[in-house]
Amino acid sequence: MRQKLQRFQENAQRKNTLEPGKDIYEEIKGNWNSVQFKNDNEIVLELGCGRGEYTVGLAPLHKDKNFIGVDIKGDRIWVGAGQAIEQNLDNVAFLRTQIQFLDKFFEPEEVSEIWITFPDPRPKDRDEKLRLTHHRYLDLYKKVLKPGGIINFKTDNTPLFEYTLEVLNSRKDADLLDYTFNLYEESKLLDIQKGIKTNFERKFHSKGEDIKFMRFSLN
C-alpha cells in the first residue's frame, strides 16, 4: 500500500500522466496535439495498457506519432510513464480512465490507430459486454478513430480471438485486414510488432500458447 501511495504521488507530479484532479484532465478532449504534445502528429492509443509496453516501445521507433497509454490502474501506468521520462520520450502520455469513457477524452476522428494487447478475456457469458472487442466497444473505437484507422488486437486466448472474428464477420462496417492464430509463424505480421512483448505475452508464450494477432478497421 505504501508503494502504491508513493507511485500515486509521483503520477500527480508528472506532466505525461493525465488523471483525475489535474486541470488538463478535464480539458484535454480535442486538444491532445495542441496542449499535450504541441504538434500535429497522428495519435496512437494502447488500451488497457498496463505498464505501457507498446506505448513506450513504439514511441522511439515512430517519432512522427504520439502515443497514449490508457488504463485505470495508476500504479501500472507509473511504470511506463517513468520509463518514458527516463528515455526523454516527448511523444508519450498516459491517461488514467476506464475504456468505456474513451469518448469523453477524444473527439471524433482524433485517433489514427489503436492497440489492444492481451486484454482480460472475460470468458463467462454474462461478462460478454466487458470484452474489449464487444460491439459496444467497437462502436466506441469507431467514434474516435479517423476513417480507415487501424485496430491491432493481440491475445493468447483462442476463444476470445474466435469471438472477435465472429463479431467482425457480423458487422457490415468491419474490414478484417489480416489475422493469424500463430503470430510467430507469420513474419509479415510479426514485423509490425517490432519485437515488443508484454509481460503476459512472455508468460503465456513460454508455456506453449500460440499468440494470435489481427488487424482490422471500421469503415
Offer a quick outline of the entry.
The protein has nine helices and eight strands. The protein has 219 residues and is an alpha/beta fold. It has a single domain, classed as Vaccinia Virus protein VP39 (Rossmann fold).
Keywords for this entry:
219 residues, alpha/beta, Rossmann fold, 8-stranded mixed beta sheet, 8 strands, globular
List the helices and strands and how they pair.
Blueprint: H1 2-13, E1 17-18, H2 23-27, H3 32-37, E2 42-47, H4 53-58, E3 65-71, H5 74-86, E4 92-96, E5 111-117, H6 135-144, E6 145-155, H7 158-169, E7 174-180, H8 187-193, H9 199-206, E8 212-218
Parallel strand pairs: 1-4, 2-3, 2-5, 3-4, 5-6
Antiparallel strand pairs: 6-8, 7-8
